[in-house]
Write a structure and sequence with these properties.
It is built from 9 helices and 29 strands. The chain is of the alpha+beta class. It folds into 5 domains: 72 residues; 93 residues, Nuclear Transport Factor 2, Chain: A; 104 residues, Nuclear Transport Factor 2, Chain: A (Roll), CATH 3.10.450.350; 129 residues, Glucose Permease (Domain IIA) (Distorted Sandwich), CATH 2.70.70; 27 residues, no CATH class. α4 runs antiparallel to α5.
């Protein structure tokens, strides 16, 4: 039964609306209306009951799902119960979530933004005319204009009248091929090669030398450019320049004053070792390597050198008036202890071999060690380290480091050099009078069969070939074909330098030891030469014509 909430009354003469709340209970006017009202009321009641049942079922289902989820742990701690069903379920959950995350991974490709205005070819050309770009990328400025009928193409493009370039002499390359590759004509290249060969041997020109070349204007379009100028450093003490004068090529020598005072470096051996001590004193790496290699043939670097020793290194050294410096080979290797020389090695002769100054010119008869190392096993019966039983040890073992130099104990002829059963790499030297020596277990052999060797000459290097448990030298001595105790033999050492050459050797040694330490590192001071004309050819060439008594750099030494 519906009740109208309001009734509207309009008062007469008052001109306004009045709202009056009136609740009136209406009675159905007829049976049809009553039946309709009953059906509406039942429908409303049914709908309300359905909504209540639906809500109840939803709450029941939600409670059931919550109870199920409480009983199932979807994200267990993977650090616990490893290998159980619970752990594998957690692992599957983690992998599934990771796979889902990868499937939804966003695309990171760049998104092209739309241009603010359409850019066609004329607009691009307009922008290009206002850009700042390298010439190699086609930079230009200003507007481009099309060619008019007044523009006529050139028959041939003009070329530069002079071309200046730098050419480099490569390793294994010839002087003439280098010039032709740089653009010099065949006739000029042949003429220049002949002129340079007359001034300096072409083989003395080091690879990597740079040549400043100037080429002139062509006489005809198809001809090669003529050579106008050529300048390069021929030697450390000489510059050469070739210039075309009145149509002919003229060679000019430009000598460079060079001071060849050797560089001497001295210092105390610190606890860091000989190598680091020499490096800290300023010695070049190449000189240190040569020094260590030279003294290693006479003493053990590991055990015979201590903090109380002093090293003395002298190397060939050149410095030019232009400021360049050139380091040469080792000239002298010395070692002192307590102010007294322990070792004095001087490079001498055309072969460049080092001679020990204290033993030069003397004839001695003493035991000579073939390698600078301690003795680890003597001559006699012993238990073989590999075979495991006692047998005769027919020599002397020296526990030297791998690669140490092995020298001949006396002059002789190599009768065998190669592999020799359990001896490994083996060398045998016959010294005459039925006396011979053998050197076994080498890593490398430095001589061949039939070679004449001198006492102290390197014949191989320590190794561990054959029946050996480690790097060492097995040294044997033979007399009449029988092996004898090497310690019972005294080898006669004859003087390798004698007579006038011995006097020259001693004078050279005295001059080397008189060089002040670091003298060669000083700058070359100009010396004023007055009076007489220069006596040497190189000085006459270096002095300008018509000038005497000019200043030049320090003389050669």
């Amino acid at each position: 039964m519906r009740y109208p909430p309001f009734r509207i009354q309009q008062g007469r003469g008052q001109g306004k609306l009045q709202f009056v709340r009136q609740i009136v209970r209406r009675e159905p006017e007829s049976d049809a209306e009553a039946e309709f009202s009953g059906s509406v009321e039942r429908e409303r009641t049914g709908v309300a009951g359905l909504n209540v049942r639906t809500a109840t079922r939803a709450r029941t289902l939600r409670d059931l799902i919550e109870r199920k989820c409480d009983g199932i742990e979807l994200a267990p701690d993977l650090a616990q119960d490893i290998g159980s069903r619970r752990w594998f379920r957690g692992l599957g959950t983690m992998l599934g979530l990771g796979l889902v995350a990868l499937l939804f991974w966003p695309d990171l490709t760049t998104v092209e933004a739309a241009t603010s205005m359409p850019v066609d070819q004329p607009v691009r050309e307009e922008f290009r005319s206002q850009m700042i770009m390298p010439l190699a990328l086609g930079a230009d400025s200003g507007h481009r204009m099309g060619a008019t009928p007044m523009v006529r193409p050139l028959k041939s493009s003009p070329e530069r009248p002079v071309v200046q370039l730098v050419a480099t002499l490569g390793r294994g390359d010839s002087f003439g091929r280098m010039l032709q590759r740089a653009g010099v004509g065949g006739a000029d290249a042949a003429r220049v090669t002949q002129m340079v060969a007359g001034a300096v041997a072409l083989g003395e020109i080091e690879s990597g030398t740079q040549f400043d070349i100037t080429l002139g204007k062509r006489a005809a379009p198809q001809q090669a450019r003529p050579l106008d100028k050529l300048a390069f450093r021929a030697r450390f003490d000489l510059d050469l320049a070739i210039e075309r004068q009145q149509g002919a090529l003229v060679l000019e020598r430009k000598p460079i004053a060079v001071d060849a005072t050797p560089l001497r470096i001295r210092g105390a051996v610190s606890s860091a070792g000989l190598h680091r001590s020499a490096r800290g004193a300023g010695a070049p790496l190449k000189a240190i390597e040569q020094y260590l290699r030279a003294i290693d043939e006479h003493i053990s670097i590991e055990s015979d050198i201590g903090a109380q020793d002093t090293f003395d290194i002298v190397i060939a050294y050149k410095r030019s008036a232009k400021g360049e410096r050139q380091i040469g080979q080792l000239l002298y290797a010395g070692l002192e202890r307590g102010g007294k020389p322990r070792l004095q090695l001087l490079r001498w002769g055309n072969s460049g071999q080092f001679f020990e100054a204290s033993g030069v010119g003397k004839q001695t008869s003493s035991y000579f060690r073939p390698v600078a190392a301690r003795m680890s096993s003597r001559f006699g019966m012993r238990r073989h380290p590999i075979l495991g039983y006692r047998r005769m040890h027919s020599g002397v073992d020296y526990a030297a480091r791998y690669g140490s130099a092995i020298v001949a104990v006396s002059d002789g002829v190599v009768s065998f050099a190669g592999r020799h059963g359990g001896y490994g790499k083996y060398v045998r030297v016959e010294h005459g009078g039925g006396l011979g020596s053998g050197y076994a277990h080498m890593s490398r052999i430095a001589v061949s069969s039939g070679t004449h060797v001198r006492a102290g000459q390197v014949i191989g290097y320590v190794g561990s070939t054959g029946l050996s448990t480690g790097p060492h030298l097995h040294f044997e001595v033979y007399r009449g074909g029988r092996k004898i105790n090497p310690l019972s033999v005294r080898f006669l050492s004859r003087p390798q330098i004698s007579g006038r050459e011995l006097d020259e050797f001693r004078a050279r040694l005295h001059a080397i030891k008189a060089i002040p330490v670091g003298k060669a590192l000083e700058n070359m001071a100009p010396i004023t030469v007055t009076g007489a004309k220069p006596q040497r050819e190189i000085d006459r060439l270096a002095q300008p014509a018509g000038q005497e008594g000019t200043a030049r750099f320090g003389a050669l030494r």
